[in-house]
Amino acid sequence: MKVLMVCLGNICRSPLAEGILKTKAAEKNLEWTIESRGTGSWHIGEQADPRSIAEAKKNGIDITDQRGQQLQKSDLQEFDLIYAMDTSNYNNILKLASSEEERQKVKMILNESKPNMNQVVPDPYWSDDGFSHVFELLEEACEIIVEKYR
Questions:
Q1: DSSP 3-state assignment of 19?
Q2: Active site includes 65?
Q3: Among 79, 81, 55, residue whose Cα is nearest residue 137
Q4: C-alpha angle 20/110/149, rounded to 5°?
Q5: Residue in 13, 49, 75, 142 annotated catalytic
Q6: List 49, 75, 86, 123, catalytic entry
Q7: Interatomic CA distance for residues 19 and 145, integer angstroms
Q8: Order of strands across the sheet with 2-7?
Q9: Cα dist. 147→14, 34, 99, 133, 134 in Å?
């Protein structure tokens, strides 16, 4: 199984989602490939936001090895599941899809924990107090993903 987490800049939400899902998959001895990307190019090669790193560390997860990458059209072919953090990113991912098969891979991540509600993971970038809430939302969704697809 190859899973991709996608947000806007690949420094806040998707690195947390990647780290959480990697940890949960490893705990279940699942040999999954889990990565993350951003739809934007601003942070290519950069480490995750220090606040995301701190939140992950607080929860026993190390994401310091992650570097920002931009979503590519080839990612839609390579990955089995692609999770968007919000509606804007969901729509931007779909714009790269060249088949119905690729479109079917793209999902809103919080639909795993709150089915059919299309809720978004709020972007904590402009606020110091949103990172723990984002972590909680993603942890719940990732737990369901591991149980659903293992």
A1: helix
A2: no
A3: 55
A4: 60
A5: 13
A6: 123
A7: 14
A8: 33-38, 2-7, 81-84, 106-108
A9: 20, 15, 28, 22, 20
CA distance 66 to 141: 21
pLDDT of residue 127: 80
Tokens matching residue 78 = 């390579």
Alpha-carbon span 148 to 150, nearest angstrom: 6
Point out the residues of the chain with pLDDT beneath 70.
none
Clarify whether 51 is annotated catalytic: no
> Tokens 């940890």 map to which residue?
23
- AA letter at 46: E
Tell the residue number behind the tokens 């800049």, with chain if given.
9
* pLDDT digits 0-9 by tens, 1-45: 999 999 999 999 999 999 999 999 999 999 999 999 999 999 999
Domains with residue ranges and CATH for the chain: 2-149 (3.40.50.2300)
Q: Which helix (H) or strand (E) holds 76?
A: helix 75-78
pLDDT for 138: 98
Q: Hey, what are 94's tokens?
A: 């779909």
* 13 in catalytic set: yes
